[in-house]
Structures are given as C-alpha cells and as structure tokens.
Design a protein that fits this description.
By secondary structure, the protein is of the alpha/beta class. It contains seven helices and twelve strands. The chain folds into two domains: 121 residues, NAD(P)-binding Rossmann-like Domain (Rossmann fold); 104 residues, 3-Layer(aba) Sandwich (Rossmann fold). The structure holds NADP nicotinamide-adenine-dinucleotide phosphate. NADP nicotinamide-adenine-dinucleotide phosphate binds next to strand 2, helix 2 and helix 3.
Amino acid sequence: MVRTVLVLGGTAEARRLAEALAEAGDRLRVVTSLAGRVSRPHLPPGEVRIGGFDGVEGLTAWLREERVDAVVDATHPFAARVTASAAAATSALGLPFLVLRRPGWRQAEEDDWRWVGSVAEAAELLPTVGTRALLTVGRQELEPFTRLSDVWLLARSIEQPNVPIEAVLGRGPFAVESELELLDDHDIDVLVTKDSGGDDAKLVAARRRNIPVVIVRRPPSPAVMIVSTVDQAAIWVIYGHATVS
Ligand code: NAP
C-alpha cells in the first residue's frame, strides 16, 4: 500500500528530506508544500504544491482529500503560523505529526549578541547599538526599519525588498570570506538577524570584526515531537512514525 506524506517545506532540510524519501522506494508518495515566497524556488523531487492552504480548515480538508498518512513540518523556524495550523489539523484528524527544526545558533564567549523578542524590537534597539546595519531578517520583515533615520541600512535578501532600503541580493549558504568583504565594503558596525540556525558565516564574520549582533529569538514550537536532523525525520517517515532518538 502506498503511504502519502506531506512535507511542509521551504528550507534546505525539507528538500533534503524529500530527496532521502524519494530513495526509499515507490511505496511512499511524498508531496512537498511551499509557501510561494520566492519566484524561482529550488524544487525537491516528488510532488510539489505551492501556496497557502487557507488556515487550519483548508489544511484539514486538503489532508483528508489527499489521504495523507503523516505530516512533517520542515518549515523555517520563524514560520510559526503554518506550524500551528499543521499541529491543529493533524491533531483534529489523529495523524502522526513531526517537526524537523535545525538547531538554533550557539553564542560564543566573545560574541556580543543582543537578544530581542521580535523584528520590531530589533528595530527599536538598533540605534543604540550601531550606525551602519546589515539586515538579514528576510525581505518581508523590513518595514519596522524604514522608520529609522539615524542608522544607515543595507538589507540582504533573496529577492528585491518592496521597501525603500538599499539591498544586496543573494541566496545562502555564504562563505565567511565573502561575508567579511560585505561587512568591510559597507563599514557595517551592527548585524541584525533572526536565530534561523544553519549557515552561520555572517555570525563568524561579525565575531571576527567584533561587530555586535541584534538577534531575534525563535517563536515557541508546538508541544509535539521535534527532531533536528534530516536522517531522524526520514527514519520517522520510513519506519512508521516510531519514536526517534
Ligand atoms: P508563516 O507566518 O508560518 O505562514 C503564513 C502563511 O503562509 C501560513 O498561514 C500559510 O498559509 C502559508 N504557508 C507558510 N508556509 C507554507 C508552506 N510550506 N506550504 C503552504 N503554505 C504555507 O510563515 P511565512 O509568512 O512564510 O514566514 C514567516 C517567517 O519565516 C518570515 O520571517 C520569513 O522570513 C521566514 N521564512 C519563511 C520561509 C517559508 O518558506 N515559509 C522560508 C524562509 C524564511 P495558509 O494559512 O493559507 O495555509
């Protein structure tokens, strides 16, 4: 019997999970769902659907219609709404649900990190920390910074932001050397980022240049099973949602 797994994607981990599951044979139907935030996404193997489900009700209906047997949420650590929807929909249907989240970043002793609870708080704190900021918070989160007049801003994003902030475009992972160059070329004296985890080249570069980092804490995760590696998630799917350790 073919089992259907929905992978909520948009991350490198989700893509790698779909690749691992594609190798597990044809008894598994893997559908990856993308939010549609970037115009040319890196597509995983298997089926792909793009766009929101229309909240918990829409997702519940979709899971039922597609006869989904299990859901893995491998979305970005800051994509809290879709995670909450998936937790509610799978709970309503009694479906196995796993969250795959890469670990957050670890602060080194020499790091000067200022933790804040939201991007808005980061914008509020920024003028007290530096005067030339590199913003790596995602192009859709830049609006609170547009109100700042005493800080020169440079955003880095995959696609052009739709706010009047100078931007350099790029998709990670990045090399430490090129991150150092970016900081040096623009005389950056503060980095603003979210605790996304994964590629940490910009944090290594900030450490080397003794630049403080304003860092947004992750939203809380739902009280469900969470793993941090693609292998653990693949085992959970392939071997029937047994406990993984
Ligand atoms: P979100 O706030 O959790 O999602 C908002 C809505 O987008 C969800 O309610 C859902 O719409 C839809 N959605 C999100 N992920 C989806 C998926 N994989 N498949 C289908 N629909 C999906 O997340 P967000 O607005 O995308 O992003 C929030 C933060 O995460 C931002 O800071 C962003 O920078 C960061 N981020 C997100 C992604 C991503 O791929 N989502 C990637 C990188 C960074 P419905 O309610 O209509 O179902």
